[in-house]
Design a protein that fits this description.
single chain; alpha+beta; Jelly Rolls; seven-stranded mixed sheet; binds fe (ii) ion; metal-binding
Length: 289
């Protein structure tokens, strides 16, 4: 790693965690410095994607007040009476939601979609809209706004079962700890540390396809937090609905034939619908050649 991006400082780790998940931290503020530092940061991002599939970003330019407001809007939404929430796509009848309520809505282009977002609580569209606009760049953006209850004794502790995300990148904002990923060096589930002000980033199925398998999608799950209910907002970024993602031609040659079939976001949605009851609803597996 370059000096500008390091692994998480030991003093930020909880004392009980003797073998924490290695966590690359990328300082995006350094992208605006001179070109040698910038290329160091870009290399660090590429290395984190290849080696681990995830990293956290600090100095990402989204203010803490915008992030806090988005979590507040989500939390207030899930406190509304069920009759109000039922007007929106909040069903948790998929095969991986063990103990989570969620709201999924498109977020880009914002002007086309915001009219379908909850109009209660009154702050929802303004606060979530500001966060959505700041966290996206190009293509499609799907916001998965999740609400998990506090873990109560004797209950199962898994809020969201293991899965990978379909897109290129997921940017995750969470109100407290609960995300776990499989550590590739030990094959053990590990808690992801919550760095102050940071956003967690991990790669999804379409990045594995684009990189022709050089980068691997990240399997993750969410546990219930024993201290408090939890909000997470996953911003999933991909190409537009019908644009096909293929293995990059620069990474395909005689020695490296394409490993995946082409597919689009709408192919993923079709796959989900066709495999609604199937616990092994793995989209990436269906693309392997
Ligand atoms: O709640 C979390 O930490 C993860 C949420 C997630 O994986 C998702 O919405 O796809
Ligand atoms: Fe996910």
């Amino acid at each position: 790693m370059s000096e500008s991006s390091r692994t998480v400082p030991q003093e930020l780790l909880p004392p009980d965690d003797l073998h924490p998940l290695p966590l690359p931290v990328i300082n995006l503020g350094h992208l605006s410095l001179d070109s040698a530092i910038r290329s160091g940061v870009v290399n660090d991002i590429a290395k984190a994607c290849r080696d681990r599939g995830y990293f956290q970003v600090i100095n990402h330019g989204i203010s803490q007040s915008v992030m806090d407001a988005a979590v507040e809007a989500a939390s207030d939404f899930f406190k509304l009476p069920s009759e109000t929430k039922e007007e929106y796509d909040t069903s948790s009848k998929d095969s991986i939601s063990m103990s989570r309520a969620f709201l999924k809505h498109y977020a880009h282009p914002l002007g086309d979609w915001i009219q379908y977002w909850p109009h209660q609580p009154p702050i929802y569209r303004e606060y979530m809209g500001k966060y959505a606009a700041e966290v996206r760049r190009e293509g499609s953006q799907l916001l998965s706004v999740n609400c998990y209850p506090k873990a109560s004794q004797g209950d199962a502790t898994i809020g969201l079962a293991p899965h990978s995300d379909y897109g290129f990148l997921t940017i995750l904002l969470t109100s407290c700890r609960g995300l776990e990923v499989v550590d590739r060096s030990t094959n053990i589930w590990k808690t992801v540390q919550q760095l102050p002000h940071a956003l967690h980033v991990h790669i999804g199925d379409h990045m594995e396809v684009l990189s022709n398998g050089r980068m691997k999608t990240v399997v993750h799950r969410a546990l219930l937090n024993p201290e408090e209910g939890r909000i997470s907002i996953a911003s999933i970024h991909g190409f537009a609905l019908d644009d096909k993602v293929t293995c990059a031609k620069e990474l395909v040659d005689e020695e490296n034939p394409p490993k995946y079939k082409e597919s689009s976001f709408s192919d993923f949605l079709d796959h989900l619908t066709a495999n609604m009851d199937n616990k092994k609803r793995n989209f990436l597996e269906s693309l392997r050649i």
